[in-house]
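Forwarding these from the shared drive since the link keeps breaking.
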Amino acid sequence: MPAPHPSLASASLSGVVVSAGRMTGTVKVRVAQQVWNRHLRKVHPNPNPSQSDPIIPFHPPSPPKQKTKEQGSPNKTDLPHPWRPLQYFPTRTHILVSDPAASTREGDIISLHSGPRVSKTVHHTVASIVSPFGTPIAARPPVPSLLDLLAQRARKRDAKEERRAMRARGEVVESDLIVAEQQAAAGRRSARQGQGKAKPKAQAKGKEAAAAAVKRV
């Protein structure tokens, strides 16, 4: 799979699929993280860590400034500001990831990146399957690349603009016929239910919905 363009996707993350098949085109992934507890403010116990450890400036809080009776000015004595690495704690978070081809299964270790936003809560997309669980990768649908997803999105947008132009010209759109037929069938079904229960208002409402659907066509 080719690497996505830097302007289209961020650095890839790795996580474990904990829920798959319950949402259409979306899976839940557990991603491991390390955070620094701002309440404990814990630092590394070794004052001289190795070069491989991340060195981050740590500034402990200064004591409260107090006024003296002689000078009437605050005390300016502060604690020293040593350079000490921070002590991180392992944690985890769950992310909703778009899986348009339904290629992942529960238990897979996957690589994901942030691509085009799919919905309000889905901002990441499956990049590749690092370690499959259960079904082999050869027996699954291939994972689409980010460029393929962008091309598919552009095609859907072009089709939508074409349907809008056809409606403006007064032409009949095939998707409108399908929707009208579905609405008419729902109206007839509602009318039959109204006849069986002897409710004239429900029967009239179903007939009106069917007539309105046919007129829109």
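-- next protein --
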Amino acid sequence: MSSKYNMFASAAMTNGQWPLEMFKRKYLQMEDPHEITFPPKELIKPPAAQRWMVDTMFDRRRIKYLPTARYTFRVMKKLLSILEEAMEDPEEDEISDDLTACFTDVLARAEQDEMASIQEHCPVTYTAPVSEENAVTVTIVEAPLLLACGGQTGNRTWAAALYLGTFLFNNGRHLIENQTILELGSGLGFVSILCGKHLRAKHVLMTDGSDAVMHLAQENVALNGVDKVVKSDVLLWGTTGVSDIFKSGCQPMQLDLVLGADILYEPEDFPALMSTLKDLFARFPHLQILISNVVRSESTLESFLDACSTNLLHVERLAIPTVPEEEQIGFFHSTFDPIYIYLIKSPQAQHRPDEGFHDGAIE
């Protein structure tokens, strides 16, 4: 690799090169190409910049986990269109052979996959929201275009999980480090894997009501190399006892924090959820629970808050500023609907200090 390319790569985090890094992060997370801000042509025109994009975004020989061929084709087609407009001097300017070869390869694969189902699972890489070179990532094999299938919503990572992940990564590390964590409705495992891979959790047990989803989640655990820390089990709210779900490896007498993201979807599930929360509090009276929720329906949220009140559970909303979409630098998520994180405590713990929540973190 040339020294010129090395210099370019090391400067990728400077203000001038930051649009390229953001382009890469959004591409690897498979953000809608129409929503991606492509770097200006003067930034992607230099040969070193084209080499950087090949090596960090498009070369299957170098990059282990890439988006689907059909998605990559859409992104590269627009990228090459911008590059073609930038070629002003035919003798000096050119699109690199390697970039062209990547496009030829992805075009052939995209045509083969043209009839692929929208249910196709593929690796989606989420980059942590930090402005530094080689920011840490979590890769989840999921179906990013699939809204729901067979009544299941656990086939993709939702905005509430990314919002919770952003909070934990930037402001909540002390809540996770050396702690035993239980996640409810974990889906394919983004939050649990983040805790085990980058936030130094002691043990993490992720749970969901679907055997099929838990099987896929455990594969994601292995893919991220955290199978010694993160375990999985099926948990049917209101049916499976708390004593039964610790058989996967967590310490049965210890539980420090419960997490949930986008689990307040169906009001008819709330009685079963309340049963499980009360079961948890009966065993761990001073337990704290964090639930991240996209407010799609005010009536659904009110139903949940009413259910908590009826069951004497104390609920407080954390005062966490929402980062506008145009200012996000990782774990990208929609803010079209408001997202809130709620702290839930048992009646016994209502008057105890909120351990770990300070400096105005609670409204």
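Residues 72 and 204 are 34 Å apart (CA to CA). The radius of gyration is 22 Å.

- D.
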